[in-house]
Amino acid sequence: MTLPRQRGLTEQAADAAIDTACRLLRLPSIRNEFTDIADRAVKDQMTYRGFLAELLMTECDDQARRRSERRIKAAGFPREKSLRAFDFDANPNIDAATVHTLASCEWIKKSQPLCLIGDSGTGKSHMLIALGTEATMKGYRVRYTLATKLVNELVEAADEKQLNKTIARYGRVDLLCIDELGYMELDRHGAELLFQVLTEREEKNSVAIASNESFGGWTKTFTDPRLCAAIVDRLTFNGTIIETDSYRLASTRARAEEPARAG
Q1: Which of 7, 130, 188, 258 is the most exposed place for a label (fewest CB within 10 A)?
Q2: pTM for the whole thing?
């Protein structure tokens, strides 16, 4: 489609032409905001180049925001969590500097693993989701899943002769976040399938896990000692290990003790 071009357009005709052109070029932010930007340009006496730059940067910023929103949705996080909302003061066992370094996502760029180990209620899932969200905002493809859900999906895929396709799909994302690893015992078949996913990603893409068991207790989840050792190796080689402290439980106790102290 070719738009008619002529000199001396009225303001209304110019607005209509801009609206039509933005629709054709798929520039929704410019279409929605060009009148406000144009008014500011007149008020601030912008040059033509300055005005054009303002329009284009508005569109670029909005497209980047929409891409981040799509990546966050595709990651499958169960809820919103941010590092800004994490209470480091209540959890002094966690080094804030280390976590903020992780937020730079250099470890993902280097395809390194991350392990968050600690009791229930220690902020592991919060940190896992928050770091995963940081990764999506920096352009990385992220997938979040519960360990049992992942294993069940792999078992079903194997039964339906779709295992290689499923493993390849989990292998492609830049960061795979596996939560609640160690909560339930896995049979040998399920553990072997999970091991295949980890092997597919080894030194190619990052894995971040959250577990309520120390590595010594993983034999309760992975009952084959050799397989357990191999999985631990995949998840720790060149990686970062953060042991969390029970900040949620501690804060709950503190609130419970306040009335007693007051009395």
Answers
A1: 7
A2: 0.74
